[in-house]
Amino acid sequence: MSKKEQWSSKIGFILAAAGSAIGLGAIWKFPYMAGTNGGGVFFLLFILFTVIIGAPILLAEFFIGRRTQKDAVSAFKELVPHSAWPLVGILGVGSAFIILSFYSVVGGWILSYIFRNLTGQLFIEGKTDYNALFDQIISNPTEVLIAQGLFMLMAIFVVRGGIQKGIERASVVLMPALFLLFIALVIRSLTLDGAMEGVKFLLQPDWSLLTGKTALLALGQAFFALSIGVSIMITYASYLGKEQDMPRSAFSVAGLNILISLLAGLVIFPAVFALGFEPDAGPGLVFVVLPAVFNEMAFGNIFFFIFLLLLLFATLTSAFSILEIVVAAFTKGDPNKRKKFTWIAGILIFITGIPSALSFGVLSDVTIFNKSIFDFADYITANIGMPIGALFISIFVGYRMKRNDVYEEITRGSSMSPKLFGIWYFCVKYVAPVAIILIFLQSFGLF
């Protein structure tokens, strides 16, 4: 078997892991989730869950991956052979498969908007009905499937190149570009008259809107945005060298994720409020409200094109990580199998995503528990699969692994103090599982 690949640098790993976290979760999903769930109170819960639950579980996944240097399923098999624990890895791979199947659909929508922007079809004189335009795009079976296919081809092309030459090389270019584009858009949005109302909406909590459902959705957002609970970070960490500072990397990724979510809110909500739109547009916020917002600005077509590029970059870097966990499960660390299985996995994910792609058009009458196929896939992964996966990972590291073994691996290559390790270990062992269970019970009216 060929030598297992590794990240070539510390910054390469951090940017790739941050790229996994900073995707649709931060830029597409966070704004509309915050917009429909109270703004400031949702954002505060999101930060709280990211710090006390998300980041600790992220580091727990890092521990499992680097300890074994194996994919998600094989890692559990090595640590606890002849047990049911590998099912956690299987759950993660399965959830990742489903996530990318509908994630690629949204990636296709972005490509459709970029094409329309470049060809002058998006911004025209007079008022454009962007709600009708969005409906037209997502209900057109030919367009959504072609766009979804193109997006998957882009992800396949990078992942087939491997860790260093594919994922890391792309992330090192795309992530800095993403930050620069964001800064430009935030400055433009905050200079609009009336922008401060949007800032208040995002940063000033209304405690009357605090409910169990809001807490569950904020928890799901923290997991979705950090790519935890589906063992993606177990796979990424399996390519880590032993000299890497895992605690610093984990909290860098969590911090960058909070920062990007904040920047996304500061791009969208000040502009929405300044120009008299409503923040509770739901999943269509980015595709319906934002074009109308930018259409009201000078050089709005240019600024919206920048935003679409930013969204595409972030979506692709997340798609790389999701596809990688599936490919790694197939190849078992053998790079000679990568190209073949990247194509196989990518094609299978595309086929699986077809019902989600068509769920706003020819399959719009098909519902599962009163949800469209797309919404159902999103809900079961973000609000059920990911929290359950995170729960089992926290229980595994906190109760199944020996504390000394965990301490040895976590602090290797790190200056993490015993006291800080103790705080992290307490969060993984007690805070995370209790919080996840309580929020589940509350959301189902059982607590």
Automatic annotation (TrEMBL):
<feature type="transmembrane region" description="Helical">
    <location>
        <begin position="144"/>
        <end position="163"/>
    </location>
</feature>
<keyword id="KW-0472">Membrane</keyword>
<keyword id="KW-0769">Symport</keyword>
<feature type="transmembrane region" description="Helical">
    <location>
        <begin position="297"/>
        <end position="330"/>
    </location>
</feature>
<keyword id="KW-1133">Transmembrane helix</keyword>
<protein>
    <recommendedName>
        <fullName>Transporter</fullName>
    </recommendedName>
</protein>
<dbReference type="InterPro" id="IPR037272">
    <property type="entry name" value="SNS_sf"/>
</dbReference>
<feature type="transmembrane region" description="Helical">
    <location>
        <begin position="420"/>
        <end position="441"/>
    </location>
</feature>
<dbReference type="InterPro" id="IPR000175">
    <property type="entry name" value="Na/ntran_symport"/>
</dbReference>
<feature type="transmembrane region" description="Helical">
    <location>
        <begin position="376"/>
        <end position="399"/>
    </location>
</feature>
<dbReference type="Pfam" id="PF00209">
    <property type="entry name" value="SNF"/>
</dbReference>
<keyword id="KW-0813">Transport</keyword>
<feature type="transmembrane region" description="Helical">
    <location>
        <begin position="215"/>
        <end position="239"/>
    </location>
</feature>
<feature type="transmembrane region" description="Helical">
    <location>
        <begin position="42"/>
        <end position="64"/>
    </location>
</feature>
<feature type="transmembrane region" description="Helical">
    <location>
        <begin position="85"/>
        <end position="115"/>
    </location>
</feature>
<feature type="transmembrane region" description="Helical">
    <location>
        <begin position="12"/>
        <end position="30"/>
    </location>
</feature>
<feature type="transmembrane region" description="Helical">
    <location>
        <begin position="342"/>
        <end position="364"/>
    </location>
</feature>
<keyword id="KW-0812">Transmembrane</keyword>
<feature type="transmembrane region" description="Helical">
    <location>
        <begin position="170"/>
        <end position="190"/>
    </location>
</feature>
<dbReference type="InterPro" id="IPR047218">
    <property type="entry name" value="YocR/YhdH-like"/>
</dbReference>
<feature type="transmembrane region" description="Helical">
    <location>
        <begin position="251"/>
        <end position="277"/>
    </location>
</feature>
<comment type="similarity">
    <text>Belongs to the sodium:neurotransmitter symporter (SNF) (TC 2.A.22) family.</text>
</comment>
